Hints:
Blueprint: E1 12-15, E2 21-28, H1 35-39, E3 53-59, E4 64-70, E5 74-76, H2 88-91, E6 92-94, E7 100-102
Antiparallel strand pairs: 1-2, 1-5, 2-3, 3-4, 6-7
Amino acid sequence: MIKTAKFQLGQVVKHRVYQFRGVIFDVDPEFNNTDEWYDSIPESVRPIKEQPFYHLLAENEDTQYIAYVSEQNLIQDHSGDPVQHPQVSELFALNELGEYVVHPHQAH
């Protein structure tokens, strides 16, 4: 079965429940983290593993960090606000539409 990711590299998304947002810099077709990480999520909100998971350069009101989030917990961020994470400029450039695009030297 071929899985198609709903979101793409450079897209700005926000968490459906928690107050953080970020830009996607990598996608796993299904869960690819440790069992310890997965088990640390409260069972009542634990996502299924058989879905895309996204690596985000994330931020909230207090800090910037790397987040790993299931597709079911993300929605598109339409705010148009830039992501302030310090690594954004290392991986992405802004195009004329204000969208994040992967730097040519980062593309594989």
